Known about the structure:
Distance between the termini: 58 Å
Number of strands: 9
Structural class: alpha/beta
Largest sheet: 9 strands, mixed
Low-confidence stretches: none
Strand order of the largest sheet: 1-4-3-2-5-6-9-7-8
Shape: globular
Number of helices: 13
Helix content: 40-55%
Amino acid sequence: MAAPRVHPMMAVSNHDEQSEQQFVVALKSYLFAELDPAVRALSTRTAKDVAHRGGNGAKPSLQDIRRELEGHEIYQHWISAQRAAQELMWQAANDCVDRQRTELDELARTAPALGSVTTNPDFVVPRYLAATDTHMMPGSYHVDPVDGGVRQGAVFDKAASLYSLGRQGGQMNDMRGDTVAAHVYERFPDLAPARILEMGCTIGNSLIAVARAFPQAEVHGIDVGASLLRYAHARAARLGVKLHFTQANAERTDFPDAHFDLVFSSAVLHETSAKAVPRIIAECMRLLRPGGVMVHLEVPFRADEASAHDLVRADYESRFNNEPFWMGAVSADLAGLATRAGFVDVKAGFQDAAFGPPQHGRPAGFGEVNKGGYKSWYLVSGRKPGP
């Protein structure tokens, strides 16, 4: 028996594919519930031992902790199992999508004429993305099949809920978009955006949530992958949401100056580079009208307050999960970069995850308290000076 279709564009899993995907979920759940706590305890003990041997009370470096951990079998097993689970996740998504790829391409081709999608055959992918398969996704976000179509988008969508075990809004994977909207409602209750842009929108899952929070707005999303964007457009159109997608680099787009009232990103900055982040923030300034709002949502982890195990996990992401800028992003002074770019009323902190559409006038939980992964997100936001 096939699994029910989550939304009109989602690849449907047959019996064997469901079994394959359920094994991935079970493996990731085991790692999260059983092996991860054991490695956390080991990391904590190791950090204390290293600090004690140092004798000066200084916090041990990640490199010192790693050198100690590399000799422990449980750490070795944890690294290997994490990577294997990620590889199996992408394989499971590939198997399901490739079996019905022709059908998915046809569903995209015959999607309602709602919104738009614009791709560029001469588009140059930023080097920091072209250099690796981000998240270990084969072909990453940007590879476009020779015959076009929506394969990369369909694979990303299928894998997304497996990756987070459904903790980011179930298989619709839209919790981050609701969280961005909740943040805007709380920090900028007067904002009534006429035009909205998401930078790095992938398949539009967050963008749909934000569009529904501001139904009066004209809503755009950009990303580097043509296949992702074709899928995102078909997905949104078949869900009845009018969105406009464009293949573009967030460091410099072709939109005119002062064109948007709200520009945001959702877990994108850590996939860029140290040089790209200030350029992206500068581009937000250029794109916003006076009084417009910028919001960037990132992983709920800051290097300056991290536990030993948080650092070890971040190290895994950078070295073994093809996220080379992870440590750079979580160490960056995003509020300082926003201020230096000219933004005012800049604040950075932790936003409670929004499990469902937010409501105006209801406190959304933005402040200094980090409640942990999938319960909080780190956000920086500010206004462009003006009326």
